[in-house]
Design goal:
This protein is of the alpha+beta class and 131 residues long. 17% of the residues lie in helices and 28% in strands. The chain has two domains: 69 residues, 2-Layer Sandwich (Alpha-Beta Plaits); 60 residues, 2-Layer Sandwich (Alpha-Beta Plaits), CATH 3.30.70. Strands 2-3-1-4 form a four-stranded antiparallel β-sheet, covered by helices on one side. Strands 5-8 form a two-stranded antiparallel sheet. Strands 6-7 form a two-stranded antiparallel ribbon. The protein binds iron/sulfur cluster (2 copies).
Amino acid sequence: MTVINVTLPFGLIKKVDDYSKIINVILEQQISVNILKFSTGRSGINLLLDIPEDKINSITEALKKNKVIVNKKGRVIVDIEKCIDCGACVSLCPTDALHLDEKGLLEYSLERCLGCGLCIDACPRGAIEET
Ligand code: SF4
Ligand code: SF4
């Protein structure tokens, strides 16, 4: 299984049925899927989905056809000058891409980042931005 992050733009979901339609796009692939996280961000509803790795391409294509945004990996940058190492972003990061080192300083791993954007609004200093 592998984790992907998708965004349902606000305009896409006007009623509950619209949400079911998107989920059905995934279920049509005849796979089991775990919804790891459900949140709202600036651009829409973010879902973290745990899906079989061999289905990633077909699911991505099916979602894109339905105007769902499949976020690319590594889409944030952290401005270390602004960061005060408060850790607020760390607890929200689903992949441990943001963590505090043994000295309590923030570290960011581009490779682990899913680009979910959950950390962006959490930062009181505006130190995290989408790239
Ligand atoms: S966007 Fe932020 S919260 Fe999401 S995986 Fe990347 S570092 Fe973690
Ligand atoms: S929330 Fe912002 S200030 Fe706090 S550790 Fe994360 S990047 Fe740094």
